Amino acid sequence: MRFYSIVLAGLAGAFALSAQSTGPSAATGLTAGESAPAAVRAIDPQDWTRAWAHVLEDRDPLEGVQAARRENPVLYARAGAPGMPQVPPPRPRAITYSNAFYTRLKIHRYASYATLPLFVSEIIVGEKLYDNPNERGALRSAHSGLAAGIGVLFGLNTVTGIWNMREMRHDPNGRRRRLIHEILMLTADGGFFATAALAPGHERPGHPLDTTRRAAHRAVALTSIGVGTAGYLYMLVTR
Question: Which of 43-52, 78-87, 180-189, 216-225 has the lowest average pLDDT?
Answer without folding.
Answer: 78-87
